[in-house]
Amino acid sequence: xxxxxxxxxxxxxxxxxxxxxxxxxxxxxxxxxxxxxxxxxxxxxxxxxxxxxxxxxxxxxxxxxxxxxxxxxxxxxxxxxxxxxxxxxxxxxxxxxxxxxxxxxxxxxxxxxxxxxxxxxxxxxxxxxxxxxxxxxxxxxxxxxxxxxxxxxxxxxxxxxxxxxxxxxxxxxxxxxxxxxxxxxxxxxxxxxxxxxxxxxxxxxxxxxxxxxxxxxxxxxxxxxxxxxxxxxxxxxxxxxxxxxxxxxxxxxxxxxxxxxxxxxxxxxxxxxxxxxxxxxxxxxxxxxxxxx
Length: 293
Ligand SMILES: Cc1cc2nc3c(=O)[nH]c(=O)nc-3n(C[C@H](O)[C@H](O)[C@H](O)COP(=O)(O)OP(=O)(O)OC[C@H]3O[C@@H](n4cnc5c(N)ncnc54)[C@H](O)[C@@H]3O)c2cc1C
Description:
Elements: H1 4-8, E1 14-19, H2 25-39, E2 46-48, H3 54-70, E3 75-80, H4 86-98, E4 103-107, H5 129-139, E5 143-148, H6 159-171, E6 176-179, H7 185-197, E7 203-205, E8 207-208, H8 214-224, H9 230-236, H10 242-262, E9 267-271, H11 277-286
């Protein structure tokens, strides 16, 4: 099966999409509608996040396996070290391999319940994502990705130590990194410069989520870990009705993406929240969709 790196390094810009494991049957239907809608646009790969507890983890494995089996898409499974012993992690990685999954996003994860709470490793588990990168690498011929944070991870003391730890994960054997949400193209480009200044040339993919509602705006602020810049607040503020707010959010995501592509970014990673419409609109406007013959 093809790797993420093979799909991203094709000499033209590409996009990829991220889904979450479905919570119930209705959610599963929505997810598969979105997967089928986006499949026709030939994303470079699709990733499925890894949740905090047992059943959601089974659903990640099941969903990623189904993508591998029943679609033409290249799947990537997320994996976190939260509440897992090394033996359990080996087991999950073995499941992924058995399902034909070659791509894994290796993450430490957050403490269940309160993401900002105290992190404590499983007594027989791992402490940081770089250890998981090494474990995945050790167990098979996987293409491995890691998380990156344009404003620094909330637990990092400063951007310098954050960069050191990101480069440590890449040096441990990760092939690429996907960035957390951010607001301005320069915020991502500065992260790319910090990594390049350490002599590291791994692919860095920006995370994009079109701000189509006030809810997605709040989610972006929460996930990015940064306050809303006044330029964007001013831009969205006049759009009091839902339709015009959505249109402004799509324009903004398109503008940010265009700037990133102009700066040589090889791939844009869209956080979809299991919906396809906004991603479709933006990638169509960017011309990232192959022309139909
Ligand atoms: C693209 C993307 C996808 C994600 N998908 C998921 C998902 O599917 N499921 C989920 O639960 N969460 C997910 N997350 C969230 C992620 O798990 C959390 O942000 C988590 O807090 C950090 O994970 P990490 O892998 O970056 O951890 P790490 O790289 O281990 O970093 C955690 C903190 O420790 C520091 N650090 C790292 N290594 C060392 C070291 N060796 N010594 C000292 N300090 C160190 C870092 O600077 C950072 O402050 C995702 C995040 C991103 C950006």
